[in-house]
Design a protein that fits this description.
With about 60 residues, the chain is mainly alpha-helical. About 65% of the residues lie in helices and about 10% in strands. It has a two-stranded antiparallel ribbon with strand order 1-2.
Length: about 60
């Protein structure tokens, strides 16, 4: 079985063609885009929090 972290699903037939078809699918590509977009915003929020903390402590 092949597990897709982005889609949180198991592909029942673990063959290259099934994985290729899944990875080219609209839902998978949307999930990958969302994952990396959220990762970027979370990192930005960490930097904002660090700056605010430094400002509050003088």
């Amino acid at each position: 079985k092949y597990y897709c972290d982005y889609c949180d699903v198991f592909l029942t037939h673990d063959s290259a063609s099934v994985r290729r078809a899944h990875n080219a699918g609209r839902n998978h590509l949307s999930n990958v885009r969302d994952y990396y977009a959220n990762l970027g915003s979370e990192r930005a929020q960490e930097l904002i929090d660090q700056i605010c903390k430094a400002y509050e402590h003088g």
